[in-house]
Amino acid sequence: MGEVIVKYKVMLDSESMIRIDEVCNEIEGVPNSIGAIQLVEKKPLAFGLMFVEVTAIIQDGEEFDNPLGKFEDQVKSFEGVTEIETLEMGRL
Q1: Domain that holds residue 54
Q2: Considering its fold, how many domains does the chain have in total?
Q3: Environment class of residue 59 by beta-carbon count within 10 Å: exposed (0-12), middle (13-18) or buried (19+)?
Q4: Most buried residue, 30, 34, 35, 85, by most Cβ within 10 Å?
């Protein structure tokens, strides 16, 4: 068993940009059984658009069934999230 630290870029649809703070709060509330959220930040993208950068520590190992996929699916399930992209990943 080990831990993986992953940094994600989360994109929102244009309508959800208005409520980006709410989306950040929703992401911070992801259950610890899936992944421990370390940091959620709004970052500028271009032309006034923003994205959400999420840093999480996720349990990894043979006893876990696709923990990265489950975490990504949880984040994708929030209203307004259109895309999630892995920016960095490393073992702890």
Answers
A1: 2-91
A2: 1
A3: middle
A4: 35
Task: Let me know if 17 is exposed, middle or buried by CB neighbors in 10 A (0-12, 13-18, 19+).
Answer: middle
pLDDT digits (tens, 9 = 90+) for 52-73: 999 999 887 666 677 888 889 9
Give me the percent of the chain exceeding a pLDDT of 70: 95
Q: What's the pLDDT score for residue 82?
A: 94
Q: What residue type is 13 in one-letter code?
A: D
Q: How far apart are CA 26 and CA 21, in angstroms?
A: 9
Query: Residue 71, class by beta-carbon neighbours within 10 Å (0-12 exposed, 13-18 middle, 19+ buried)?
Result: buried
